[in-house]
């Protein structure tokens, strides 16, 4: 069983985000990158599957600030091989990123064959969740997204995946392997790895560098960012003032006006 | 003495490890331990298991999660066995590795401390944001590199937590009025990491030590003064191995050295009856029992009374050793919150103010007072806050 996990770094929204002077991107100077949360879940799901069914886990990420920390952490948690696609000097569109990943997966020696490719179903900069289905399409594999649980039938070459629907409905699917799954949440929260183990991984594990493949179409973006700006608050809360009696009768009035009583 | 790193395997090659074998099994440690009655393996049993070669049973249970690193077992041991400093951190390290799942709150605190330098997961770039509200000038080393006498290491709760910032603002006012030549590290500062070490995480602790030591080397100062007893603990006991050789003081004993000068500044009467809670790290670990009391007695109009458990017998607030991030877990286990046990005793004295000198305690005791419905009867104030209040015209 060979499971490939695709990781990506996204802007850390804990630190303040600034918009660059050209108004079309985030200001990189003030940006810190963090592993996308659902990718962290994809990694956890892969490690849980490895613990249950054996095999190995390979992690592949596009280069980004702090990506090495994420890869060493993945190794410390139990990933067998960590790889980084290095060499790009600018960010990619989702389509370009997916194409680059597909080319590396298909052509880099020792990556194929894979049984399962897991990645986060969404990222804060890919809310459409396009990377995983695009990779699946490039590699001619089936795809399922919004997955919250995976079980394997190794001998039959299939997986059973649980997909979440609104209103508390779950669907269970059988999918032929190799397949790509977009993970919403792992079966358990991502595990804690002691920092000593990460430090040890930094000394003993090598991140394998892979050159960015050249894109046949020159990689021209089909979609361009025109403008990026902060939301302007549309309205403000109305503060009710006065004695408790005045405030409560005014409040009742408002609720009645809006038909909430 | 052995030069190999101290681990559970090599422990007995070290004098402090050999000492553990001299345990009398009297049980003073277990009976003084604030969570002794709920632990599957209280300190006495841990030592018995160690002698029997069965330590694995201890660290594969979650018993040690209830250790709040309060130094009570160590303070009461008739043989002077240094449990909190030696055996318990090594055991906790193993517990962390063996626990099938870490309580979520603790996991987040550890991850946040690694990434943002503070357990609450606040932005590292906002660490010094409180400075603008201090009302007195505060020099940040990165902006003005001239040497200072004191590097004030503010720490996390005192930088981010709103009630902790009250402590920082008070400290800044006191330093300013006393004419102390001080500077802070601002956004360059990260948690000193003491709870990292006592919370099972030596790797996190080492990462923070390496980082902070590199920042210290950039500037010139004579002493480090810190608002946090846990940071004081780390700087005193662990950082010297990396070359930390500056004079070191916690803010409370540091201010006590200026008590005569302070008395002239404390012009406002504070008609409070105050009871003082000894923090574990300042009290049992460093025996700074009198400095905070001397400062409180210097405030005009203030009456100081003692709780039943005071000084070496003080009951821990429950925040040490990672307890700060295990409240939900303790609650789920049905344990009494130690901060509630402590405030019940404080309220029983009839005092209006519970005075503290550790930034963990303000949030813990204020929450406990609210939970028990005592928040109208008693308020929690850091010693520095009371001093600053008495200094206002």
What's this entry about, in short?
The complex is a heterodimer of chains A (261) and B (393). Chain A is an alpha/beta fold.
Structural notes for this entry:
The complex is a heterodimer of chains A (261) and B (393). Chain A has 261 residues and is an alpha/beta fold. Chain A has a single domain (2-211), classed as 3-Layer(aba) Sandwich (Rossmann fold), CATH 3.40.50.620. Chain A has helices spanning 37-53, 67-77, 94-107, 131-139, 195-204, 244-257, and strands spanning 2-7, 9-11, 33-35, 56-62, 81-86, 116-120, 143-153, 158-165, 169-176, 179-183, 208-211. In chain A, the strands form 2 sheets. A 9-stranded mixed β-sheet of chain A has the order 9-8-7-10-6-1-4-5-11, sandwiched between helices. In chain A, strands 2-3 form a two-stranded antiparallel ribbon. In chain A, helix 2 (67-77) packs across helix 5 and helix 3 (94-107) runs parallel beside helix 4. By secondary structure, chain B is of the alpha/beta class. In chain B, the strands form 2 sheets. Chain B has a 4-stranded parallel β-sheet with strand order 2-1-3-4. Chain B has a 4-stranded parallel β-sheet with strand order 6-5-7-8, with helices on both faces. Chain B starts with 14 loop residues before the first helix and ends with a helix. Chains A and B meet through helix 5 of A and helix 6, helix 7 and helix 11 of B.
């Amino acid at each position: 069983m060979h499971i490939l996990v695709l990781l990506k770094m996204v802007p850390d929204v804990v630190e303040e985000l600034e918009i660059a002077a050209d108004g079309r991107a985030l200001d990189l100077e003030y940006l810190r990158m963090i592993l996308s949360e659902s990718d962290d879940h994809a990694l956890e799901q892969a490690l849980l599957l490895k613990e249950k069914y054996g095999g190995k886990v390979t992690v592949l990420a596009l280069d980004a600030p702090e990506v090495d920390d994420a890869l060493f952490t993945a190794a410390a948690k139990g990933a067998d091989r960590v790889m980084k696609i290095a060499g790009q000097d600018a960010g990619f569109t989702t389509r370009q990123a997916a194409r680059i990943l597909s080319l590396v997966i298909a052509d880099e020696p020792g990556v194929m064959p894979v049984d399962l490719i897991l990645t986060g179903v969404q990222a804060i900069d890919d809310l459409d969740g396009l990377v995983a289905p695009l990779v699946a399409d490039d590699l001619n594999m089936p795809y399922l997204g919004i997955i919250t649980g995976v079980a394997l039938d190794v001998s039959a070459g299939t997986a059973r995946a649980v997909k979440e629907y609104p209103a508390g409905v779950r669907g269970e699917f059988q999918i032929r392997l190799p397949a790509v799954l977009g993970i919403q949440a792992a079966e358990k929260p991502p595990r804690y790895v002691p920092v000593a183990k990460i430090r040890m991984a930094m000394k003993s594990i090598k991140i394998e560098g892979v050159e960015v493949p050249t894109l046949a179409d020159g990689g021209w973006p089909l979609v361009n960012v025109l403008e990026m700006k902060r939301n302007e608050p549309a309205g403000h809360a109305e503060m009710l003032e006065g004695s408790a009696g005045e405030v409560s009768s005014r409040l009742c009035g408002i609720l009645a006006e809006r038909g909430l009583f | 003495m052995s030069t190999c790193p101290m681990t559970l395997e090599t422990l007995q090659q070290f004098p402090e490890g050999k000492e553990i074998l001299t345990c009398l099994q009297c049980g003073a440690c277990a009976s003084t331990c604030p969570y002794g009655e709920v632990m599957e393996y209280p300190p006495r049993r841990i030592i018995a298991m160690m002698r029997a070669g069965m330590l694995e049973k201890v660290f594969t249970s979650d018993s040690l999660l209830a250790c709040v690193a309060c130094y009570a077992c160590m303070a009461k041991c008739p043989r002077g066995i240094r449990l909190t400093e030696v055996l318990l951190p090594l055991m906790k390290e193993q517990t962390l590795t063996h626990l099938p799942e870490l309580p979520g709150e603790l996991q987040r605190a550890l991850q946040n401390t690694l990434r943002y330098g503070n357990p609450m997961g606040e932005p590292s770039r906002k660490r010094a944001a409180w400075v603008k509200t201090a009302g007195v000038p505060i020099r940040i080393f990165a902006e003005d590199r001239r040497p200072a006498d004191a590097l004030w290491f503010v720490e996390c709760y005192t930088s981010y937590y709103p009630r902790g910032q009250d402590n920082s603002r008070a400290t800044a006012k006191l330093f300013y009025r006393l004419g102390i030549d001080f500077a802070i590290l601002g956004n360059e500062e990260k948690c000193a990491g003491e709870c990292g070490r006592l919370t099972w995480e030596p790797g996190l602790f080492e990462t923070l030590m390496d980082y902070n030591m590199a920042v210290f080397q950039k500037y010139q100062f004579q002493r480090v003064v810190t608002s946090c007893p846990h940071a004081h603990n780390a700087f005193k006991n662990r950082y010297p191995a990396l070359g930390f050789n500056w004079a070191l003081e916690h803010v409370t004993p540091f201010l006590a050295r200026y008590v005569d000068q302070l008395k002239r500044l404390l012009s406002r009467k504070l008609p409070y009856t105050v009871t003082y809670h000894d923090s574990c790290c300042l009290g049992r670990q460093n025996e700074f029992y009198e400095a905070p009391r001397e400062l409180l007695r210097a405030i005009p109009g203030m009456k100081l009374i003692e709780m039943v458990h005071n000084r070496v017998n003080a009951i821990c607030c429950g925040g040490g050793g990672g307890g700060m991030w295990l409240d939900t877990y303790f609650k789920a286990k049905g344990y009494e919150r130690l901060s509630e046990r402590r405030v019940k005793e404080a309220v029983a004295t009839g005092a209006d103010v519970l005075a503290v000198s550790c930034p963990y305690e303000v949030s813990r005791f204020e929450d406990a007072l609210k939970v028990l419905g005592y928040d109208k009867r008693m308020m929690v104030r850091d010693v520095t806050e009371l001093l600053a209040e008495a200094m206002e015209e």
